[in-house]
Amino acid sequence: MEYFNDHRRLYLTALALFVTLTLLVVIIPAISNQTNNGLLPGYELPSDEVVAGKALYIANGCVACHTQQVRDVAMDEVWAERPGMAADYAGNHRQDFWRNTATLMGTERTGPDLTTIGTRQPSRDWHLLHLYQPRAVVKESIMPAHPWLFEEKESLDLKDVEVTVPDEFKAHKNMKVVAKREALQLIAYLQSLKQIKIYNPSAVAKFLYKDEAKQGKEAGAAKNPGAKGQALYAQHCQSCHQSNGEGLKGAFPPLKGSPIVNDDNPELQITIIMRGYDAKPEYGVMPAVGTNANLNAEQISAIVNHERSSWGNKGRAIPPAEVQKIMDMIKNGK
Amino acid sequence: MIYQMTFLDAARAATVKTENLITAPGIVITLVLLFIPILIMVVLLLMKIRKLFAIKSAARLAGTNGDLLLSTTDGLLKNINQHAAVPFVSVKRKAQIRPYTDPKLASLILWFLISATFWLILGTTVGEYVGIKFVAPDVDHYEWLTFARLRPVHTNAVFWGWSSLGMIGLGYYVVPRVSNVPIHSTNAGWWTLLLINSSVLIGSLLLMAGINNGGGEFREYIWPVQLLFAIGLALTLNNFLKTVAKRTTKEIYVSNWYMVTAVIFAIVLTIVGYIPLWQDGLGETITQGYYMHQGVGMWFMLFSLGLVYYFLPQQLNKPIYSYSLGILAFWAQILFYTLIGTHHFVFSAIPWSLQTVAIIGSMGMVIPVVAGTTNFLMTFMGSWNKITNSYTLPFFLVGIVFYFTGSLQGTAEAFRYTNLMWHFTDFTVAHSHLTMYGIIAFLLWGCMYAVVPRLTRVEPPQLGVGLHFWAAFIGLMFYSISLMVGGTLRGYMWMDGKPFIDSVIMMAPFWLWRAIGGTLMWVSHLAFAYNLYRMIAFRHTVNDTMATEPEPEAATYEIATAKG
Predict the structure, then answer these.
(1) What's the topology of domain A41-210?
(2) What is the ipTM metric for this complex?
(3) Nearest by Cα to B443 from B239, B303, B299
(4) Over the stretch B183-228, which tens digit does the pLDDT of each residue have?
(5) Could you tell me which CATH number the domain at A211-331 has?
(6) Which of B43, B304, B328, B563 lies at 20 to 30 Å from A106 by C-alpha?
(7) Nearest CA distance, A278 vs chain B (angstrom)
């Protein structure tokens, strides 16, 4: 190749090829993407607290373990109602002079996807304790503790937000753990993470790969409802009420021995799951877990029966048909 | 509406259907690829054992226990410059008598390699610590040492500190050598060294302090920090170009095609990755996919391949099998590799057409990979016996094998179905270690063991090199196999709709094995650092050796010690 014996020709050709391809696969698509995707109707401008919280999320590198993207494949259905779309990210701009845009889509799911964590886990108390020490709420968690977002105090000031930390997780047993402003900002950000609802179904991509094999398995699971109930409980309730059903003092009530759970009439129990609950001042607020996760009657029956038959509870089993009736009642505003 | 289903989306929905997991092509390919390095490891070990056995029986033949010098003049025994008493590693052939290297350049190169090794040790110590945190998340609670801040410290230090400095340092040896002229300026080299070292140092500290660019991998340093790096590159580019321009050969040797182009592309990459004009919303993600992947393919891979085109023939003492194959691979690499960036975001909200282009590009990657591998293996052909006698060639062999398996694994991962299962799991982490470590680090080590003795006239301790090689290789296998198995199981669990926390619990033993593999790798780096120290600290000053007669050839040296 005589032609390339001239170094200028060689390197300029390579450069030209590379730059042309770069324009085609990156720069032009990126520009067209950012100009053609407006904000979704219903998008709310983030508050200052939320913006500060996002900066903390970035500074502490949460994106290393958490994605914020829901792909249009069936396995991602647990994370959101619909797959993500380009417009979901349109509100992201350059952070400041020093720092780039952060869509925080992430590349690894060492921890759960957080696209809709604001709906899935709206409880501030839960987040506070979890941030302070994840293993206090989720025993097997490997998420880092973030004690620097908190301070220890001997006595509380008026505006202090105290975190009820079990003694074994405290550095000093006689001190009180108080959330710093940063912790509250970070949680404000987490609480703001929700998916904007889209009412036009044709605008939304479908979840793909809903395979028959899985539906077969589902049928198989129906034969063994105990296992299914336990799995659903682990997925939707356990992080608060704990696998031993004992809850966490000062934050989440025990289901073990709960009169509501053992009641022959399941109405309140199911209403709590579908509507959330905030009856007792000594505990936090329970979100509408069942509605947020789109649980159906069969799934709720499995969960309810798991609770009624575990940890020494001896409630009556509730068949799906009965659950369905109560759910309809709730929906119609009873 | 903005987000209507395009016909591509429709086509996509049509092509996607259930496949049986184990027979999905991507998975079959990956499994097959996985066996190759294991097979090579077994073969290498067998070669070792056979050789050991041959020495033992030779010793018996000679009626000794191997302590005495074995020598025959009748050609009955060959390859006998061995002490049977040291069975763990065999004494390798010494490096050839070296051509002259300007002492000023030599010391620049050595400082590049020393800095690189410093970042290797530091970066992998951090990596090891981060790996331990998966097993023991509460080992410490310091803000600056939290997992998610240290992780990018690790990745960036091994990228920009270890691999980049190592490559550029070796480049300073190769570029003038194949141009047959002295380097244009050693001063520019020192500036590059200083700038890149400062960039990695400042960058690491800022990351630990919580100041980063926004979460795109390998783009975590904020722009002023990465700018230092880019200026360093620009200085070196200018230097290399001027050296190539002065060359006394008519053709530009293929190594210089690869290496100089890699520097040019790395600069383009930094510009594209850091200019904010196309980075609003998903634009950031599209840029990120490109940046991250081209960093690997156009900077590290291209440059390292250039090094191999010089060092492999040199170490085998024969020309490269096919010059034109190298050139074909060069253009094919640029063409296909540039297309594949977005394959990290398959199924995401990125336009489907782009994802498809990425998948097609991933398929096209087979061409340069197969061309490159064939070229290297054909160069090896007929000289396989040299491997057991050399301490550099095993590194090259492993690097080349991983080049083949690692790159094709990337292709397999881009298949939609495999992507579905492995995406977001630790499988990706295994893949990046198979490539950045299995390919790049091993090739760099091979090159360094070839260059340093030529500059300092001191061979590395054999036991040290043996320890380095085997600990790194076995460690990497532990590391990646455990993560691949764990990642696959985790993907399965997600597809099965199991509670997320169950998949965390399931990973625990695999994370433990990963930490064990990582520890072996880390130990191997200590061995490497020690070897480097030995070669440099015990060096005869270059001027000295140029004045005195050349060092005795390997065989004479052996005989002398055996007699003594």
Answers:
(1) Cytochrome Bc1 Complex; Chain D, domain 2 (1.10.760)
(2) 0.86
(3) B303
(4) 999 999 999 999 999 999 999 999 999 999 998 899 999 999 999 9
(5) 1.10.760.10
(6) B304
(7) 26
